[in-house]
Amino acid sequence: MAPGVPVPVDVVDVFVRSDLAGEVADQAVAVGAKAVWFQLGVVDEAAYGRTREAGPAMVMDKCPAIEIPLLD
Prior knowledge:
Layout: E1 11-14, H1 18-30, E2 35-38, H2 45-54, E3 57-59, H3 64-67
Helix pairs in contact: 1-2
């Protein structure tokens, strides 16, 4: 667990502008998040690459409300 986070982090769901998303992804990696999800319209290819290289699962430019029902 990361300092200041009392439980393991499964997913960080990112709802910020694309120009801010990379910093949030980096913070998610730093706290040991298992996955990072950039919401629909949030795109940062460099952050996507850094996050995948660090190990967590990464989703970019997708909405869970749209994508999850498609898994059924």
